[in-house]
Structure formats: structure tokens, C-alpha cells
Design brief:
This protein is mainly α. It is built from eleven helices and no strands.
């Protein structure tokens, strides 16, 4: 059944949802985005991405992750969607799932270096120190004076038993 409050396009449903969110009416924002998905209003990716963030802010990380996964599957190279999904998965304690998103290829393609930082953080947390060192290397290749990354690569090298490399990184 047509929706009398919309022209039926994804852009229209998304615009209505965003307007409601700006007014602080998150219930209506969610309803408009869900309605757009329900009637199949074109490209569902922005609606899924929006709903992912609405659910994340409300604390429903399971629903947030499902919507963000749908958006990420449709646009795997979209760094913002990937970062939002990674953040939700980390907050939900799903580090292995988050690590599956932060591929080395995606880290290399991300000019903002956010994916490489997430990859390094998650690899280190999962005690995959060799992968952490590589990820932090991606960051340092573009930002050689990044003190946080130097600290992290030093800790990852220590985790590998490379104490000389750890000291070098930590003293830089």
C-alpha cells in the first residue's frame, strides 16, 4: 500500500527520518526509515545505515549491527559505514566479527587511516601481534610522527618478543 506521507523514494524517507531525528523524535525517525525499507523504496543502503546508528544510540547493538551489516554488504568500500559497524561490534564485545571487517585491503584503501587503526587495535587485542604491527605500519607510512601509533606498534612488537623493535618504537 502506498505511503501517503512520502513520494516513495529512499531519499524522501531518509529526509523525513533525518528531519525527525533533528527534532529529537527518534521514534518517528526510526518509523520513517523502517517504512522506507518495508515498502522497498529504492536503494535500502542509506536507510540501513541510518537505522544502524539510531539503534546504536538507543543501545540496541544487535539491531544496530544487523542494519549496519546490510549497509556494509551493499557498500563494502564505504569507510563511514565500515567504521560505524566496527564500532558497534566492538561495543557489543564481538571483536572477532569486527576484525573480519577490517581487512588489510580496506585498511590500505582508507586515506583517513581509521580502518588501519581499528585493524591494529583489534589485532593487538586478539593477540595477533604480527597483524597489529602491519596495520600500525600502514598508519606510520602516512603519519610517521603519530605518537599513539608508535606506542601501539611498540607494544605489539613486545608481544611478538621483538624487544629491540619495541624499545625503538617507544623511544621514537
Amino acid at each position: 500500500m502506498p505511503d501517503p506521507t512520502s513520494d516513495g523514494s529512499t531519499d524522501d524517507f531518509l529526509a523525513q527520518a533525518v528531519a525527525a531525528a533533528h527534532k529529537g523524535d527518534m521514534r518517528k525517525a526510526r518509523e520513517r526509515a523502517e517504512r522506507g525499507l518495508e515498502i522497498g523504496a529504492g536503494d535500502a543502503t542509506p536507510l540501513h545505515a541510518f537505522l544502524g546508528m539510531i539503534f546504536a544510540r538507543s543501545g540496541d547493538l544487535t539491531a544496530a549491527a544487523e542494519h549496519l551489516k546490510s549497509a556494509h554488504q551493499a557498500r563494502a568500500a564505504d569507510i563511514t559505514i565500515a567504521c560505524n559497524l566496527i564500532s558497534v561490534l566492538i561495543d557489543d564485545g564481538r571483536d572477532e566479527d569486527a576484525f573480519a571487517i577490517v581487512t588489510e585491503d580496506l585498511a590500505i584503501s582508507d586515506k583517513s587511516l581509521r580502518i588501519a587503526r581499528y585493524r591494529g587495535f583489534l589485532a593487538q587485542k586478539l593477540e595477533r601481534f604480527d597483524e597489529a604491527v602491519k596495520a600500525y605500519g600502514i598508519v606510520l607510512a602516512k603519519a610517521p610522527d603519530d605518537f599513539e601509533c608508535l606506542n601501539n606498534i611498540g607494544n605489539a612488537k613486545a608481544g611478538l618478543g621483538d624487544h629491540a623493535g619495541a624499545v625503538d618504537a617507544l623511544t621514537r
